[in-house]
Protein backbone atom coordinates (compact mmCIF):
# COMPACT_ATOMS: atom_id res chain seq x y z
CA UNK A 1 0.00 0.00 0.00
CA UNK A 2 1.26 3.49 -0.84
CA UNK A 3 1.35 5.91 2.11
CA UNK A 4 0.59 8.75 -0.28
CA UNK A 5 -3.00 7.47 -0.58
CA UNK A 6 -3.70 8.39 3.06
CA UNK A 7 -3.90 11.83 4.64
CA UNK A 8 -0.40 13.01 5.62
CA UNK A 9 0.30 14.26 9.13
CA UNK A 10 1.54 17.66 7.92
CA UNK A 11 1.55 19.90 4.88
CA UNK A 12 4.56 22.19 4.40
CA UNK A 13 3.77 25.89 4.09
CA UNK A 14 7.00 27.83 3.64
CA UNK A 15 9.08 27.11 6.74
CA UNK A 16 6.02 26.00 8.72
CA UNK A 17 4.28 22.63 8.97
CA UNK A 18 0.50 22.73 9.10
CA UNK A 19 -1.00 19.67 10.85
CA UNK A 20 -3.96 17.76 9.54
CA UNK A 21 -6.44 16.43 12.08
CA UNK A 22 -4.78 13.01 11.97
CA UNK A 23 -1.67 14.48 13.69
CA UNK A 24 -3.62 14.90 16.92
CA UNK A 25 -2.58 12.57 19.71
CA UNK A 26 -4.76 10.43 21.94
CA UNK A 27 -4.96 12.76 24.93
CA UNK A 28 -6.71 15.86 23.65
CA UNK A 29 -6.40 18.57 20.97
CA UNK A 30 -2.61 18.42 20.87
CA UNK A 31 -0.05 16.93 18.50
CA UNK A 32 0.88 13.30 19.14
CA UNK A 33 4.34 12.63 20.55
CA UNK A 34 5.22 10.43 17.59
CA UNK A 35 4.76 13.24 15.04
CA UNK A 36 6.71 15.67 17.22
CA UNK A 37 9.63 13.25 17.19
CA UNK A 38 9.15 12.55 13.50
CA UNK A 39 9.45 16.22 12.51
CA UNK A 40 12.48 16.71 14.76
CA UNK A 41 14.17 13.61 13.29
CA UNK A 42 13.43 14.85 9.76
CA UNK A 43 15.06 18.21 10.47
CA UNK A 44 18.06 16.59 12.14
CA UNK A 45 18.69 14.15 9.31
CA UNK A 46 18.76 17.01 6.80
CA UNK A 47 21.95 18.21 8.56
CA UNK A 48 23.80 14.88 8.30
CA UNK A 49 27.26 15.57 6.92
CA UNK A 50 27.99 12.17 5.36
CA UNK A 51 25.76 9.25 4.28
CA UNK A 52 28.19 6.87 6.03
CA UNK A 53 27.17 8.41 9.37
CA UNK A 54 24.38 6.40 11.00
CA UNK A 55 21.90 7.89 13.50
CA UNK A 56 22.54 5.82 16.62
CA UNK A 57 20.62 7.90 19.16
CA UNK A 58 17.67 10.30 19.10
CA UNK A 59 16.28 11.77 22.32
CA UNK A 60 13.03 13.73 22.14
CA UNK A 61 11.88 16.00 24.99
CA UNK A 62 8.24 17.07 24.94
CA UNK A 63 8.48 20.31 26.90
CA UNK A 64 4.81 21.22 26.82
CA UNK A 65 1.58 20.35 25.05
CA UNK A 66 1.77 21.31 21.38
CA UNK A 67 -1.48 22.67 19.95
CA UNK A 68 -2.75 21.27 16.66
CA UNK A 69 -1.57 24.42 14.92
CA UNK A 70 1.39 25.18 12.61
CA UNK A 71 4.87 24.55 13.97
CA UNK A 72 8.39 25.36 12.81
CA UNK A 73 11.44 23.19 13.29
CA UNK A 74 15.08 24.22 13.22
CA UNK A 75 18.20 22.07 13.54
CA UNK A 76 21.85 22.93 14.10
CA UNK A 77 25.07 20.95 14.06
CA UNK A 78 26.71 20.91 17.48
CA UNK A 79 29.89 19.09 16.52
CA UNK A 80 31.37 17.16 13.60
CA UNK A 81 34.33 14.80 13.97
CA UNK A 82 35.95 12.16 11.83
CA UNK A 83 33.70 9.44 13.28
CA UNK A 84 30.73 11.33 14.71
CA UNK A 85 28.28 14.18 14.35
CA UNK A 86 26.04 15.70 17.04
CA UNK A 87 22.91 17.61 16.00
CA UNK A 88 20.24 19.39 18.04
CA UNK A 89 16.77 20.46 16.93
CA UNK A 90 13.91 22.51 18.35
CA UNK A 91 10.20 22.73 17.58
CA UNK A 92 8.71 26.21 17.86
CA UNK A 93 5.11 27.29 18.16
CA UNK A 94 3.97 30.87 18.83
CA UNK A 95 7.64 31.88 19.24
CA UNK A 96 8.14 29.38 22.07
CA UNK A 97 10.20 26.18 22.10
CA UNK A 98 7.69 23.40 22.74
CA UNK A 99 9.86 20.37 21.95
CA UNK A 100 13.50 19.56 21.37
CA UNK A 101 15.72 16.69 20.31
CA UNK A 102 19.36 15.72 20.27
CA UNK A 103 20.92 13.13 18.01
CA UNK A 104 24.23 11.37 17.67
CA UNK A 105 25.56 9.95 14.41
CA UNK A 106 28.48 7.53 14.24
CA UNK A 107 30.45 6.36 11.24
CA UNK A 108 29.89 2.82 9.97
CA UNK A 109 32.89 0.50 10.22
CA UNK A 110 34.07 -3.10 10.27
CA UNK A 111 32.01 -5.43 12.44
CA UNK A 112 33.96 -7.48 15.06
CA UNK A 113 34.00 -11.21 14.44
CA UNK A 114 32.16 -12.28 17.58
CA UNK A 115 28.86 -10.94 18.91
CA UNK A 116 28.33 -10.10 22.58
CA UNK A 117 25.63 -11.92 24.54
CA UNK A 118 22.15 -10.40 24.55
CA UNK A 119 18.81 -11.47 26.01
CA UNK A 120 17.09 -13.66 23.39
CA UNK A 121 13.71 -12.36 22.21
CA UNK A 122 11.23 -13.98 19.87
CA UNK A 123 8.54 -11.76 18.37
CA UNK A 124 5.11 -12.90 17.20
CA UNK A 125 4.63 -13.39 13.45
CA UNK A 126 3.77 -10.41 11.30
CA UNK A 127 0.08 -9.50 11.48
CA UNK A 128 -2.39 -9.94 8.68
CA UNK A 129 -2.94 -6.54 7.11
CA UNK A 130 -6.46 -5.23 6.48
CA UNK A 131 -7.57 -4.84 2.88
CA UNK A 132 -7.41 -1.09 3.44
CA UNK A 133 -5.82 0.91 6.24
CA UNK A 134 -8.24 3.17 8.11
CA UNK A 135 -7.48 6.81 7.26
CA UNK A 136 -8.91 7.79 10.67
CA UNK A 137 -6.15 5.91 12.51
CA UNK A 138 -2.67 7.47 12.69
CA UNK A 139 -0.70 4.23 12.37
CA UNK A 140 -1.26 0.49 12.24
CA UNK A 141 -0.30 -1.13 15.55
CA UNK A 142 -0.89 -4.81 16.21
CA UNK A 143 -0.51 -5.51 19.95
CA UNK A 144 0.20 -8.91 21.50
CA UNK A 145 0.01 -9.85 25.17
CA UNK A 146 -2.97 -11.33 26.98
CA UNK A 147 -4.18 -14.58 25.47
CA UNK A 148 -7.41 -14.28 23.44
CA UNK A 149 -10.48 -14.97 25.57
CA UNK A 150 -8.63 -14.39 28.87
CA UNK A 151 -9.67 -11.35 30.91
CA UNK A 152 -11.00 -8.11 29.48
CA UNK A 153 -9.69 -4.84 28.12
CA UNK A 154 -6.66 -4.13 25.97
CA UNK A 155 -4.38 -7.10 25.29
CA UNK A 156 -1.47 -5.28 27.00
CA UNK A 157 -3.62 -4.91 30.14
CA UNK A 158 -2.22 -7.99 31.85
CA UNK A 159 0.66 -9.10 34.05
CA UNK A 160 2.89 -10.61 31.41
CA UNK A 161 4.97 -10.06 28.25
CA UNK A 162 3.86 -7.45 25.72
CA UNK A 163 4.78 -7.09 22.05
CA UNK A 164 3.75 -5.06 19.01
CA UNK A 165 4.28 -4.75 15.29
CA UNK A 166 4.08 -1.11 14.19
CA UNK A 167 3.64 0.10 10.63
CA UNK A 168 3.45 3.74 9.61
CA UNK A 169 0.85 4.03 6.87
CA UNK A 170 1.03 7.70 5.88
CA UNK A 171 3.56 10.38 5.01
CA UNK A 172 4.85 12.61 7.79
CA UNK A 173 5.00 15.56 5.37
CA UNK A 174 2.88 15.58 2.23
CA UNK A 175 4.83 14.61 -0.87
CA UNK A 176 7.80 13.14 1.02
CA UNK A 177 8.31 9.40 1.54
CA UNK A 178 9.26 8.65 5.14
CA UNK A 179 12.94 7.83 5.52
CA UNK A 180 13.89 4.76 7.60
CA UNK A 181 15.13 7.09 10.37
CA UNK A 182 11.85 9.00 10.44
CA UNK A 183 9.96 5.70 10.37
CA UNK A 184 11.83 4.55 13.49
CA UNK A 185 11.35 7.92 15.20
CA UNK A 186 7.59 7.71 14.64
CA UNK A 187 7.34 4.13 15.93
CA UNK A 188 9.46 4.41 19.09
CA UNK A 189 6.93 6.61 20.90
CA UNK A 190 4.87 3.43 21.35
CA UNK A 191 7.48 2.38 23.96
CA UNK A 192 5.65 4.40 26.62
CA UNK A 193 2.37 2.52 26.25
CA UNK A 194 3.99 -0.85 25.57
CA UNK A 195 5.97 -0.73 28.83
CA UNK A 196 3.60 1.31 30.99
CA UNK A 197 0.52 -0.90 31.15
CA UNK A 198 -0.59 -2.72 34.29
CA UNK A 199 -3.62 -4.91 34.87
CA UNK A 200 -5.65 -1.78 35.66
CA UNK A 201 -4.66 0.20 32.57
CA UNK A 202 -2.16 2.83 31.52
CA UNK A 203 -1.30 4.96 34.54
CA UNK A 204 1.66 6.99 33.19
CA UNK A 205 2.16 9.62 30.51
CA UNK A 206 5.62 9.94 29.01
CA UNK A 207 7.67 13.14 29.05
CA UNK A 208 10.32 11.96 26.61
CA UNK A 209 11.63 9.03 24.63
CA UNK A 210 14.95 7.87 23.25
CA UNK A 211 15.60 5.79 20.17
CA UNK A 212 18.88 3.91 19.82
CA UNK A 213 19.88 2.16 16.62
CA UNK A 214 22.65 -0.18 15.52
CA UNK A 215 21.26 -0.03 11.97
CA UNK A 216 18.33 1.51 10.14
CA UNK A 217 15.11 -0.50 9.81
CA UNK A 218 14.37 -2.33 6.58
CA UNK A 219 10.81 -2.68 5.32
CA UNK A 220 7.60 -1.12 6.64
CA UNK A 221 7.31 -2.97 9.97
CA UNK A 222 9.05 -2.31 13.28
CA UNK A 223 8.60 -4.92 15.99
CA UNK A 224 8.72 -4.05 19.68
CA UNK A 225 9.11 -6.19 22.80
CA UNK A 226 8.68 -4.75 26.30
CA UNK A 227 11.79 -5.37 28.39
CA UNK A 228 11.40 -3.42 31.62
CA UNK A 229 9.11 -1.18 33.63
CA UNK A 230 10.37 0.30 36.89
CA UNK A 231 8.37 2.86 38.87
CA UNK A 232 8.32 4.50 42.29
CA UNK A 233 6.78 7.69 43.79
CA UNK A 234 4.76 8.29 40.62
CA UNK A 235 7.75 8.20 38.25
CA UNK A 236 8.52 5.45 35.75
CA UNK A 237 11.05 4.32 33.21
CA UNK A 238 10.53 1.70 30.54
CA UNK A 239 12.62 0.01 27.87
CA UNK A 240 11.73 -1.97 24.76
CA UNK A 241 13.70 -3.90 22.18
CA UNK A 242 13.19 -2.91 18.53
CA UNK A 243 13.28 -5.22 15.49
CA UNK A 244 12.53 -5.36 11.82
CA UNK A 245 11.81 -8.58 9.95
CA UNK A 246 15.56 -9.26 9.64
CA UNK A 247 16.38 -8.95 13.33
CA UNK A 248 17.23 -6.49 16.12
CA UNK A 249 17.80 -2.83 15.26
CA UNK A 250 17.92 -1.04 18.63
CA UNK A 251 15.97 -0.02 21.71
CA UNK A 252 13.34 2.42 22.92
CA UNK A 253 13.60 4.13 26.32
CA UNK A 254 11.03 6.38 27.98
CA UNK A 255 10.47 8.23 31.24
CA UNK A 256 6.97 8.97 32.46
CA UNK A 257 4.95 10.52 35.27
CA UNK A 258 1.80 9.14 36.87
CA UNK A 259 -1.47 10.74 35.84
CA UNK A 260 -4.59 9.39 37.55
CA UNK A 261 -6.83 10.77 34.79
CA UNK A 262 -5.19 8.35 32.34
CA UNK A 263 -5.58 5.19 34.41
CA UNK A 264 -8.85 4.15 32.80
CA UNK A 265 -7.67 4.77 29.25
CA UNK A 266 -6.71 1.69 27.29
CA UNK A 267 -4.34 3.03 24.67
CA UNK A 268 -3.51 5.96 22.46
CA UNK A 269 -5.75 6.62 19.50
CA UNK A 270 -4.42 4.68 16.55
CA UNK A 271 -4.18 1.26 18.15
CA UNK A 272 -7.73 0.95 19.44
CA UNK A 273 -8.81 -0.45 16.07
CA UNK A 274 -6.57 -3.47 16.55
CA UNK A 275 -6.59 -3.64 20.35
CA UNK A 276 -9.41 -6.11 20.92
General description of the model:
This protein has one domain (about 5-105, about 135-275): Beta Barrel (Porin), CATH 2.40.160.210. The longest helix has 13 residues, at about 35-45. The chain is globular. The protein is built from three helices and 14 strands. With about 280 residues, it is mainly beta. It has a twelve-stranded antiparallel beta sheet. The two termini are about 25 Å apart. Helix 1 runs antiparallel to helix 2 (about 180-185).
Give a short overview.
This protein is mostly beta strands and 276 residues long. The chain has helices at residues 33-45, 180-187, 191-196, and strands at residues 10-13, 16-19, 53-62, 71-80, 84-93, 96-107, 139-144, 163-168, 197-198, 201-202, 204-213, 221-232, 235-244, 247-258. It has one domain (3-107, 137-274): Acyl-CoA thioesterase, double hotdog domain (Porin), CATH 2.40.160.210.
Q: Which descriptors apply to this entry?
A:
single chain; mainly beta; Porin; twelve-stranded antiparallel β-sheet; two-stranded antiparallel sheet; 3 helices; 14 strands
Instruction: Compute the average pLDDT.
Output: 91
**Protein structure class:** mainly beta
Widest sheet: strand ordering: 1-2-4-5-6-3-11-14-13-12-8-7
> From the coordinates shown, what is the CATH architecture?
Beta Barrel
CATH topology: Porin
Q: What percentage of the residues does DSSP assign to strands (E)?
A: 35-45%
Low-confidence stretches: 263-276
Organism: Mycolicibacterium chitae
Protein name: Protein of uncharacterized function (DUF3705)
Amino acid sequence: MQTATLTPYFVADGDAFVPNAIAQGGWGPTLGGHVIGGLLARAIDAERADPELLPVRLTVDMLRRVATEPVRVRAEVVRVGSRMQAIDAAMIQHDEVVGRASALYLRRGEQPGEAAWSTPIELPPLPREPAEFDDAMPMFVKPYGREPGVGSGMVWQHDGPRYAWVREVRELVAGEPNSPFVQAALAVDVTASLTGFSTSGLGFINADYTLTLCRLPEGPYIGMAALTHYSEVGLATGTASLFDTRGPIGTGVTTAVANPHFGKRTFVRGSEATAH
